Amino acid sequence: MKIAIIDYDSGNTQSVLFALESLGFTGIITKDKDEITTADKVIFPGVGEAGSAMKKLQESGLDLVIPTLQQPVLGICLGMQLMCNTTEESNTKGLGIFEVNVLKFPNTVKVPQMGWNTIYNLNSPLFTGIPENEYLYLVHSFYAPLNENAIAVTQYGQEYASALQKENFYGVQFHPEKSGKIGAQILSNFLSL
Amino acid sequence: MLTKRIIPCLDIKNGRTVKGVNFIDLKDAGDPVELAKKYTETGADELVFLDISATEERRKTLIPLVREVAKAINIPFTVGGGISSAEDVKLLLQNGADKVSINSSAVKNPSLITELAQEFGSQCVVVAIDAKLIDNQWKVHLMGGKTAAKLDLFQWAKEAQDRGAGEILFTSMNNDGTKKGFANEALAKLSETVNIPIIASGGAGTMQHFADAFINGKADAALAASVFHYQEIEIPQLKQFLKEKNVSVRI
Prior knowledge:
Chain B: This is Imidazole glycerol phosphate synthase subunit HisF. Chain B: It is found in: Cytoplasm. The complex is a heterodimer of chains A (193) and B (251). Chain A has 193 residues and is of the alpha/beta class. Chain A has a single domain (3-192), classed as Rossmann fold (3-Layer(aba) Sandwich), CATH 3.40.50. Chain A is 24% helix and 33% strand. In chain A, strands 2-1-3-4-13-12-11 form a 7-stranded mixed beta sheet. Chain A has a 4-stranded mixed beta sheet with strand order 6-5-7-10. Chain A has a two-stranded antiparallel sheet with strand order 8-9. In chain A, α1 links the parallel β1 (3-6) and β2 (28-30). The radius of gyration of chain A is 15 Å and the shape is globular. Chain B is an alpha/beta fold and 251 residues long. Chain B has one domain: TIM Barrel (Alpha-Beta Barrel). Helix content of chain B is 38%, strand content 24%. Chain B has 10 helices and 11 strands. Chain B has helices at 32-41, 55-72, 86-94, 104-108, 111-120, 153-163, 184-193, 207-215, 226-229, 235-244; strands spanning 5-13, 16-17, 47-51, 77-80, 99-102, 125-134, 137-142, 147-152, 167-172, 198-201, 221-224. The longest helix of chain B has 18 residues, at 55-72. The A-B interface holds A 12, 14-15, 18-19, 21-22, 47-49, 52, 78, 107, 110-118, 135, 137-141, 155-156, 175, 177-181, 183-184 and B 1-5, 40, 45, 67, 70-71, 74-76, 93-96, 98, 118-124, 166-167, 195-197, 220-221, 250.
């Protein structure tokens, strides 16, 4: 299986690659359009700031490639947020795959949310075999509100969508590559799609 | 519900764990990778590696170590010690570290916080603050506590937050090594001063101390070294204890 990890200088690509390797797979970290479009699975990681990350995607033309992909695509953290319509972070326009606008957490809670929280109302093949209310590692200041693409919910001051799916596109706010065995199971489920 | 985090801290010198590691059931207790695995398996929520090597040795040993740790564990880890530029940080993150902790270099050059937050995101910038209560004022200290800076703990924490720090790791020098509990009053005040997560450090001796840091000190995470290294406190029992005290933990 060919797994492409999109490289746009904003991702924790190495951690994702290590996670794949510990599952017995390997991946290629790439910004090459052909490598990405011909892969069986595409992982779109991301940490950092949305505005500059989006700029880097545009510079490499990947902003036009990602929405056209036909194979299963998994956005992680900032990757997921960039797959949405817009994000309040630097008022950035996203890829518009998920029809939801990403908002900043209110300061009634500590921002960023940092640590292990539960996911529930799981509703996707991505979560096959994953019980409700397992803990995943999250670190983020912006969130996707509940919407029709939500496939998992998390509570932090309010309920929000901690995972999204639309057709072949999947997005998770948590870091499966840093979430112990449960995270590894979710990654493995993605690779089995 | 977001849970409180338990964070073992490993001191590293020339790629090896130093100071107070005494696991009976490990073949090589000096191997940071073995220790990292052990803590991950027993339920640590994160790990912190503090490199205390001299600069030259650190260059040779730290990056390979970070890679090995990143391969071996799948929970987040922070690397600190001697980080003073965006270039240092880039290398660590590229090799699998999730966060970096900066201390003296941030005090000397506060714009480093801003620069790192902009380039890599606040989520990976931990500002570590060593402070000591002197004449009723919490004074920030530098160079592993050797030099006193003129800064006040709370003002500095606020500035660090405003510059883009994602988290504060506060070590009370009055409590560190005493095993008499964390500096809960200062921790609680810190939590009111800033709106980013606070890691409590310095003073862990009993399981009750952790409960106190979370309940009275309002800390988001608690870091300790020797109580874990000498197996005086086991993480599964600690988490069970905290759960019974109604502290939300990941079990």
